[in-house]
Amino acid sequence: MATKEHSLYKLVSKDQAEAFAWSFEGPNTEAVLYPFQFPPIRPDEVRIQQTYFGLCYTDCHLVNQDWFPISYPSVPGHEILGHVVQRGDQVTQFQIGDLVGAGFIRDSCGKCKQCIVGNDQLCGQVGNEHLIPIPKFGGFATHVQLPAKWAFPIPNTIPQHLAPPLLCAGITVYAPLKRHFGANKNVGILGIGGLGHLAIKFSAALGMRTTAISTSADKEEEARAYGATDFICTKNQEQMAKANGTFDMILSCASANTVDEFIAYTNLIKSGGDFVMVGIPALTKVELQLPFFALVVRQISFVGSLVGSRQENYEMLEFVNKHKIYPTCEQFEFENFKGAYDKLLNGRPKYRCVVKVGNAPETLKQ
Ligand SMILES: [Zn+2]
Ligand SMILES: [Zn+2]
C-alpha cells in the first residue's frame, strides 16, 4: 500500500476511495496501490472511469527518471480509455456515459502560435498541465480526471481491449506518416515492436510502399502479414547494400544508439529524404552522435515527432475505424498491474500491454 501522499490526490482508506491508482514512490521501485479522492473537478474537465488502459515504455522512462527528475509519488499512464462519469460545468461535447480516450497530452492553451496553426500538441503555454503523466495522476488508475479538450470520442466499433494503445502508439506513428505522406513514397519502418508493428499497418493502409527494417530475420513473415511489401534484415549486408539510397523516409521506431547505426540507416535514405524519430532512449545511458556528413552532403533531414495534434487524433481514430488497424496486445487484470509493468520493463511483450479495469473500483473497496 502507498505511504507517500500526493499534494493534490488525497490518500484515503480503501472504503473511502473514489478511485485506485498504481503509484510509484521512487525510481526503480515496485508500484503500490493508492486509494484516493480527486481534487474538485475543474469546469473544463471530465472524470473518466476506465475500462482498459495501456502501458507505454515512456512510463518506465519517466518513473525511472531516465530523461529528467520527477516528483513522487508518481502515477504515470497515458493510454486512457473509459466512460465519462462526471463533467465540469463548461463541458458540452460529452454526455455522462460517453466512451472516450486520451493520450499523452493533457492540455493546451488554444491561443499561442502553435495552437493557432494546429500544432496544439506543441503548446508551450500550459506549463505543468501540458503532459498527462506528470505531475498529476495519469492513467494507471481506475479513474482519471483531465481536460475534456484532449479526450476523444471512441467509436463503439473499435474493440475496447485494443483501443488504449492507439491513443499513444497509434497517433505517434500515424501523425508523422500522414505529415510526410506521398502516394508514391517509399517508406522504411525501422524496428518491429510496439510502435513499429502499428506503423507498418498505418503506412500500408495509407497506400505507401512499405518496407519493414529489423535486426531479426525471423520477423519477415509477420511484417508482411501487417502489410509490408519488402523486408530488410539489418544484419544482412547484401540486403542493406541493395536498399542503399532507396527510401524517401525512414520512420525510426527503434532507438539507434551509436553513430555507426545512424550511418547505416541514413545510407538507406535517398538524398533529400527524411529520418523521423519518434522514440527517445534513456538519455542517462546514451550519448547521441549524429552522422553529420550524410546530413549535410546528402541533405538528409533528421526530424522528431511528438504524438499528434487534436485534429490528427480525430483523423487517426476515423482512419483506424475505417481500416480496422489494431495493435497486438497482451492483457492483464488491474490487480496484476505489477505483472504488466514488469513484462514491459523486463520482458518482451507482444506488443503492447493493456490492463483490464473491469469492476476493480468495487472489488478493491471490499
Ligand atoms: Zn506513450
Ligand atoms: Zn497553446
Automatic annotation (TrEMBL):
SUPFAM superfamilies: GroES-like, NAD(P)-binding Rossmann-fold domains. The keyword Transferase does not apply. Residues 43-155 form the Alcohol dehydrogenase-like N-terminal domain. Coiled coil: none annotated. CDD domains: CAD1. It comes from the Eukaryota. One of its GO terms (molecular function) is metal ion binding. This is Enoyl reductase (ER) domain-containing protein. InterPro entries: ADH-like_C, ADH-like_N, CAD-like, GroES-like_sf, NAD(P)-bd_dom_sf. Residues 194-321 form the Alcohol dehydrogenase-like C-terminal domain. Keywords: Metal-binding, Oxidoreductase, Zinc. It comes from Paramecium tetraurelia. It holds the Pfam family ADH_zinc_N. Its cofactor is Zn(2+).
